[in-house]
Design a protein that fits this description.
- It is built from one helix and eight strands; from the N terminus they run H-E-E-E-E-E-E-E-E.
- The strands form two sheets. Strands 3, 4, 5, 7 and 8 form a five-stranded antiparallel beta sheet that branches.
- The C terminus is likely disordered.
- With 239 residues, the protein is an alpha+beta fold.
- Helices cover 42% and strands 31% of the residues.
Length: 239
């Protein structure tokens, strides 16, 4: 016969139970304190990083604003420089054109005051023109009296435009303000004859033909042709 087994159950005393609870609380406090310290350290690090990033953003913003101000300043300076260069260029072009005009006028007056010995009496000195708009040009013919200039000379002039219209050559008489193809003149030294000319788009000017008829006996008829060239190029020698 088997004897019954004896089972012994060990129970904690209240002191052991209190010690266990205290140990658990201590471990929990240690865990909480360790987590708190780690979290606080991370928070401090994050705050420092945030402050540093904020400072960096501020510096970059200031640098960007300064760069934009410098860009605007340089743009304004560039515009001023460009305007000054354009103005200087225009002024230079104007001065050069003025010099060319003076040289041309000097040559013209020299032809009056000191003409070639072979030139005597009425002469057609030059023809010039300037564009007014797409279809209108203003023109000028200069007459002089070479040699003896003791008295006035008079007469009239016929002016014709020789042009190409397609493949056809056309001759167009130029009229005065009274729409008459005759320009009267009377002068002692020189006189300019002027007028306006309408040019259609299909008309290509080639030359201007001038016939001058002096009324003084013994004076020959002057027949001269000028090529149609830009104003600064169409100075002709007196013939």
């Amino acid at each position: 016969m088997v004897s019954p087994e004896l089972i012994v159950i060990k129970r904690w005393t209240w002191k052991q139970f209190a010690f266990g609870i205290a140990a658990v609380l201590l471990v929990l406090n240690l865990i909480f304190f360790t987590g708190y310290m780690m979290g606080d350290a991370d928070g401090i690090s994050l705050r420092k990083d945030k402050q540093q990033l904020t400072q960096t953003v501020k510096q970059i913003t200031e640098q960007l604003a300064e760069s934009e101000r410098q860009l605007v300043k340089q743009t304004q300076i560039s515009k001023v420089d460009q305007a000054a260069n354009v103005q200087a260029g225009n002024s230079l072009d104007s001065q050069q054109q003025h010099i060319r005009n003076l040289e041309r006028e000097l040559k013209f007056f020299r032809s009056i005051m000191a003409p070639e010995e072979s030139l005597k009496g009425l002469q057609v000195a030059r023809f010039s023109w300037q564009q007014q708009d797409e279809e209108t040009v203003s023109w000028q013919i200069s007459l002089i009296q070479a040699g003896a200039q003791g008295r006035s000379i008079s007469g009239y002039v016929n002016v014709e435009l020789l042009a190409m219209q397609g493949n056809k050559q056309v001759i167009i008489p130029l009229n005065n303000e009274k729409q008459v193809d005759r320009f009267n003149f009377r002068f002692r030294y020189f006189q300019h004859l002027t007028g306006n000319l309408k040019l259609s788009k299909d008309l290509v000017p080639v030359s201007i033909r001038v016939k001058a008829y002096p009324t003084l006996k013994g004076q020959p008829i002057i027949d001269k042709e000028f090529p149609w060239q830009p104003d600064e190029e169409n100075l002709a020698n007196v013939e």
